[in-house]
Amino acid sequence: MMGWLTDLKHAARSLRAQAGTALLATFTLAIGLAAATAIYAVIDAVLLRDLPYPHAERLVQIRERAEDGHDMALAYPNYADLSATVDAFDATAYYTDMGAPVTYAGNTQRHRYALVGDNFFQVLGVAPVLGRSFSGDERARLAVIGFDLWQSRFGGRADVLGQVFEINGETHSVIGVMPRGFAFPAQAALWTPVLSVLDHPGNSRSAHNFDGIGRLHAGEGLAQARLAAAALAKRLHEQHGDDVDAAGFDLMPLRDAIAAPVRNALLLLAAGTAFLLLIAMTNATNLLLAVNVARGRELAVRSALGASRARLARQVFAESLLIAGSACVLGLTGASLAIRLLLRSGGAGLPRLDDIALDPAAIGMGILLALAMAGVVALAVLLGSQRGTPNASLRESGRGLSAGKAQLRMRATLLVGQTALTTLLLFGAGLLTRNFVSLMSVDPGFDGSSAMRVELIRPWSQDAAVAAETARRYQALIDAFASLPGVDAAGGVNALPLTGSGAGGTFWDGSVTDLASLDAVDGLGYAEFRIATADYFRAAGMRMLSGRGFDARDRADGENVAVISAAAARTAWGNADPIGKRIQFGNMDGDARILTVIGVVNDVHEHRLDRAPSGTIYLNLGQRPMAASEFNIVVRSALPLAALEREMRGQLQSLAGDIPHRLAPLAEVRTAALAERRLSLVLLGIFAGVALLLAVGGLYGLMAFAVTQRGHEFALRQVLGATPARILGLVLHGGMAIAAIGVASGLALAWASARALSGMLYGVPAGDLLVSIGVVVLLLATTLLACLLPARRACTVAPREALS
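Above: the chain's sequence. Below: its structure in C-alpha cell form.
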C-alpha cells in the first residue's frame, strides 16, 4: 500500500510538471465519462430496470395488430374472447385513459384518469396504501386516487375515504389512495371502474378503444401465450369474417412496450456514446504518449539505475489512475447536470422519467468506466513506449533523433481508429439530419403557422341536453374569437392532427341503420372519427378538394352530414365521386343517424409524419356533440401570435373561466411530434461535433510531435536541396494518409451497420451517398487545416540550428 501511495505522489508531481497536457487529457476523458454515465442512467431507467411491480417480468401488454403490421388498440369483444380462452394468464384487464375535468371543493382542473376493467390493480400487483381498490363485479361511481392528487387536491387529509368529487360532471366517491409514484397508465392521476351503462365498451369488433394488460402464469412463457393468441385470432376471422379488421393480437412484455417508442433512439445514443468514449480514450492515450516522450530520458535513467519494467509500468498506471479519477469526478458532475437539464426540459417524451437519476448504479458504472479507462490508457501508453536497452534510449534521446518512432506508429494507429469512429458518428448524425429534414418537408395536411389553439375540456355525458350545452359554449367561444380584430378564421375539432388522441373505427354504407347488426355487414373501411365546426378547415389551413364544408344549412335537427378526407373516399369508393354518398359511423358515438357526405378535404397525418395519412371522417359539432367533451379551437390570424394570445385570453376569461383550458401555438403540435427525433439528432450531433474536435486536435498534436521528432531529418533534406514545398508535401501527406485510412475504415463500418438505422429513417436510404460525400469532405478538410500549421513549421526549420 505504501508503495502505491509513493507512486501516486510521484505521479502527481510528474503530471504537475506537464499540467497543460494532463488537464487536457482529464477533460477529454471527462467528456466521454459524462456522456456515458448520463446515457447509462437513462437506459437503465427506461430499458433495463424492471417495472416497480411484483414479478414484473410476467406482465404483458395486450394490443391488436393491423394488416400493415403496426399495433393498435383492442376491440372489446376480441379482448373478451382472449381473456376467456387464452389460459396462459393468471388474470387480464382492459383500460383506457383520457383527460377529464375534475372538480373538488368548487375548483375544477384537468387531470388524466383511467377507466379500468376488472382485475386492473390485481394484474399489476399493487394495492392502495389507504382504503381499497375495486372488487371484481363493482359497477358504482367510485374512484381510487393517486398519491400526488391526494396531496395536491385533497390536502393529504386522513379522512379522504368517502370524500365526494366530480369527474366529467358525475359525482364519485373516494375508496382508496395508491402508493407514491404509481401512475399507470402514464400520467394517470385517478382510476374509476367501467360502468355497465355509462361506459360499456360495446360489441363492435372494429371499434379499437382499449389497451390490455395480463399477468402470465408462473413458469408460463410469452411464446406460448403468443401461440394461443394467434390461434384465437385465426378462429375469430373464421367465425366473424370481415367484422374483425385486425390481423391478430400483439403481445409484448409490458416493460418493453412502455419503452418501445424510444428504444431505437436510446440504443443509437448508447452506440454514439460508446464511440465518443473510445475516441476520448484514444485522445488521452495520445496525450500521455507525448508526455512520455518528453520524459523519455528520465525513464531511461531510472531504468538504468535499476528500476524494473514492472515498477515503471506501475508508475504509468498511477498517472493514468490520477487522470481517470479526476475525470471521473468531473464526468459524474457533468452527468448530474445533464440529467437535471433533461428532467427540466420535460424529457422529450421519455417514459419512466421519474426513475431517471444519477443513482448508485449510474455512479458505480461511472467509476467502473473510469477504472477501465485508466487501465486501457496505461496499457496503450506502455505498448507505445520506447523499446530497447536503457543505453540505447539514452543515446537516442540525447541525439533527439528517433526517440518517438514507436510512439509515432502507436499514435498514428490510434488516430486511424479515432478517425474511423468519428466518421461513424458523423455518418449517423448526417443520416439523422437528412431524416429530420425529410420529415420536416412532409406536408402534415395542416398549416401550423400564424395560428393559436386552445385545448378545452368539459364533462362528458350521455345526456343529449348536456352535450348540446357543451357544443353551444364551444361555439360561442369560437364566434367570440372569430370577431376579434385581425382574425381570419376560427374553428374547432375534438382531436388535432399529429396528437394521436382521437378515436377511429370501421364505417359502413348508409343502408345499415341498426347499430346492433353492424357485425353482420361488411364495412366500407377504417377511418379516424372527428367532430368539427364550420370554419375549422380554413382555420387549420386545410384545403377543400370538392363539395363544401359545414355551414348554417347544417342544422341540429336537419340531415346529418359529414366531410371526409381524400384517403377515406378512396378507401370506400375508389375514384368515384363521394359527394352525396351516405355512410353509417354511429358505432363511434352511439348515434345511428345516417351521414351524407357533403365535402372532401385533404388528408392529414393524424398520428405520425412517417406513416401514410389514414382516412378521416368529420362530423358536425352542432349535430353530433356527444363525442366532443374534449375540444380544440384553432384561431388563424395575421396578428403576431403574442398579440393574438392576449386577445384570446381575455375572451377565455370572460366566456370560459370555469372550463379548464390550455393556450399554445398550433405549430407546437408538429414540434411535439418530432421531439423524440430532435433529441436524438441534437445529442448525436453534439457527440459527433465533440468527436470531430478531438480527432482534429489529436491529429494536430501528432503532426506537431512528428515535426519536432523529425527536425534533424527536415534540416538534412534542406541541406541536400529539398524545397520548402517538398517538405510541406511530406508533412501533409503523412497527416492526410492517416485521415484517409481512418475515413475509409469508418465509411466501411458505417455502410455495414447502416441497416440498423433503417427503421429510424424516412425518405433517406441507410447508405445515403450525399451524407457519405459530406462526411468525407468535412473530415478531409478539417484534417488539412489541422496539418497545415505543423507543416508550415517544418518548412521553417533552420538547418544550422537543427543540426547543431
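The two ends are 47 Å apart (CA to CA).
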